[in-house]
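Case study 2.
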Amino acid sequence: MTALLLLICALPGHIHAQEQPGLALIYPEVAEFAPIIITESDYSCLQNLDCIKDTHFLSLRRWNISFTNENVSNVSKYMLKGQAENEEIRAIYDSDGSLIEAEHIRKNTRLPLAVRNQISQPEFSGWKMTSNQVIVKDFDPKNTTYIVQLEKSQHDQEIHFNHDGEMIYRKAPIDIRQNVYTCFQSIECLKNNPDFKEQGWHIEFIPNDQSPVRKYQLESFSNNVSVQASYDNRGRLKEATLIRTDSKLPKHILRNLVTDHNGWTMISNKTTVKDFDQHKVTYEVTLQKNGETKLVKFDVSGDQI
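Prediction:
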């Protein structure tokens, strides 16, 4: 049986049981622990230590709770911790026992209908949910985030939903092809391109304040595609590197491989595009034959370099 262990410690102080009137301590040798089952109905009680220490509240759940006190300073804070296979709880309380902050995490649990309906939409056809997390902040049901991991054909994506089942974040596979290189020349185009938003690409613009002139960095990634680019203070591209690994190579590259490296087997490849320029492309191919491995490189025309 998966057991719940809850630990409440004073930060930085040690509080002895005899100093806490009405304190109920349930020790491991007294009762077999129940699995962690913290439901929304428990949240109101978890807002305050006085309620948690109530004998009735503890005895129903058979939680193991202990208090410690180091008497280091006059300001005390209390920390609650609990963990099991698919559930975790953390909370901090002030010296009066009132909640400061908390996080309750459940993994691979049944999602609400609103979230299930979202991932059943046609755009997720063929995608399979591999895991999920439910994160509740400060024991407030309205401050709940649902994180869903989806997988399809060796690709994956992560989607976050709020309490109402609305999508608030999406990290999806990216595949930047030649027909969109022009848009990557400008931050403004990327921000306003509806196609990118629909695909849910995870693209972050990071202000670079280390330079005297404000610049921007673009970073994006997926299983086999990564891109890094820097833009000036007007959002115009300065430099970029786009890398695709183990992707489909152009026909003229494949033809040259067959002609010049007959009998060798391709075990991996990497395509590098500089500055989103279709003329600045190089291909690196790793070949293997009879236990020997070699790396060959081609320019955009297919000539070996």
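The chain has six helices and 15 strands.
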